[in-house]
Amino acid sequence: MTPSQPYLIRAMYDWIVDNEMTPHILVEASDQVQVPREFVEDDKIVLNIGPMAVQALELGQDAISFEARFAGKTISIRIPVKYVSAIYARENGQGMMFPEGDDSPPEEGPAKSERPHLQVVK
Asked: pLDDT per residue over 80-94, tens digit each?
C-alpha cells in the first residue's frame, strides 16, 4: 500500500481550514527540505500553510510545495512529506503528529492469524 501520511495531511488541512483555523506544519529541516535556513531552530521549522499565508500550495503525494514571504522576500518551499512531523491548528493545537521517517509497510507483515481485526463502532 502507499504511505498514508500524505492523505492524512490533506485531510487535516481541509478539516482545519473548514473550521476557520490556521494550519501549521512542524517540519524536520534536513538537507532534503527546501526552507529558509535562517528560521530553522533545533533542526525544525514551523510553517503557516494557511490560504492567506501561501500561494500555489500543493499537498502532493511525495512533497508539499508552496511560495511564501519571509522577511518581505518570496521564497519557494518544498518539503518531502516524510519530513512533516505534525499538522495542527495554530489557534488550539488540535491536529496530528507523525512518527519519524516514512510509514512504508514492513517487508514482512504479520501472519494472517496475528493481524488485527477491525470492527465498525457506531
From this structure: 999 999 999 999 999
